[in-house]
Amino acid sequence: MGTLDDNIESVLYSSEEISRRVSELASQITSDLDNNNTNNTESSPPVVVVGVATGAFLFLADLVRNIKLPITVDFIRAESYGSGTVSSGDPRISSDLKMDILGKHVILVEDIVDTGNTLSCLIAHLKSKGASSISVCTLLDKPERRKVNFELVGEGKYYCGFECPDYFVVGYGLDLAELYRNLPYVGVLKPEMYK
Ligand code: 5GP
Ligand code: MG
Ligand code: MG
């Protein structure tokens, strides 16, 4: 039986590079939260880190371990991709938050921002629930592919791990038809895998 690696054409971001960058992002977030007068206390932590399922699960896990302040964690699920590599362009929220985010500072954690459709849909949704600020922390961004611009809310900031070339990438949470999420790095599949 072959391994997952056999289907990878090239590695874009190694596990070591990702780990280094994730620590940097977490330090930046920690110091921004600390300076931002978010009044963070353990009894009522006003910061909610919201992972966009499923793609952000590994990134979120590594990121929050390096944020040195009390935070809470929740998940939301948005679906725009079918099982292929082309977005439907009409994202839907298929599973909502468990927590009440009224008056909270939300950090939305995404695997990748591509057209921007998913993010703008999620931000509008979280804003309607009364978040007092919305930041976005994405592992990857493909700025060339942007179709929709999104606006952060309140004092929200934009954090990005890597600007990614316009390939369909998998690994470290990102899938093709639910496979490859468990690769510890981000890579590009061999062309025959897309057929
Ligand atoms: P957008 O709505 O910005 O077009 O797409 C966002 C979602 O599409 C991402 O959260 C991700 O699930 C999926 N996506 C976009 N580009 C890629 C890619 O290169 N690889 C994978 N695996 N998913 C992608
Ligand atoms: Mg995603
Ligand atoms: Mg996907």
Structural overview:
The structure is a single chain. This protein is α/β, with parallel strands linked by helices and 195 residues long. The protein has a single domain (15-33, 44-166), classed as 3-Layer(aba) Sandwich (Rossmann fold), CATH 3.40.50. Helices cover 22% and strands 32% of the residues. It has three helices and nine strands, in the order E-H-E-H-E-E-E-H-E-E-E-E. The protein has a six-stranded mixed sheet with strand order 4-3-2-5-6-7, with helices on both faces. It has a three-stranded antiparallel sheet with strand order 1-9-8, with helices on one face. Helix 1 packs across helix 2 (57-65). The longest helix has 21 residues, at 15-35. The model has no long low-confidence stretch (mean pLDDT 92). One magnesium ion is lined by residues 52, 55, 110-111. It comes from Rhododendron williamsianum.
Strand order of the largest sheet: 4-3-2-5-6-7
Give the terminus-to-terminus CA distance: 20 Å
Residues in helix, %: 10-25%
Q: Mind describing the biggest β-sheet?
A: 6 strands, mixed
Number of strands: 9
Indicate the radius of gyration in whole angstroms.
Answer: 17 Å
State which percent range the strand residues make up. 25-35%
Mean pLDDT: 92
CATH topology: Rossmann fold
Name the hetero compounds present: guanosine-5'-monophosphate, magnesium ion
Treating each run of at least 4 consecutive H or I residues as one helix, how many helices?
A: 3
Which structural class should the secondary elements be placed in?
alpha/beta
CATH architecture: 3-Layer(aba) Sandwich
- Identify low-pLDDT runs: none
The shape is: globular
- Give the H and E element order: EHEHEEEHEEEE
According to CATH, what is the class? Answer: Alpha Beta
Number of domains: 1
InterPro entries: HGPRT, Hxn_phspho_trans, PRTase-like, PRTase_dom
GO molecular function: hypoxanthine phosphoribosyltransferase activity; magnesium ion binding; nucleotide binding
GO cellular component, one term: cytosol
Catalytic activity: IMP + diphosphate = hypoxanthine + 5-phospho-alpha-D-ribose 1-diphosphate
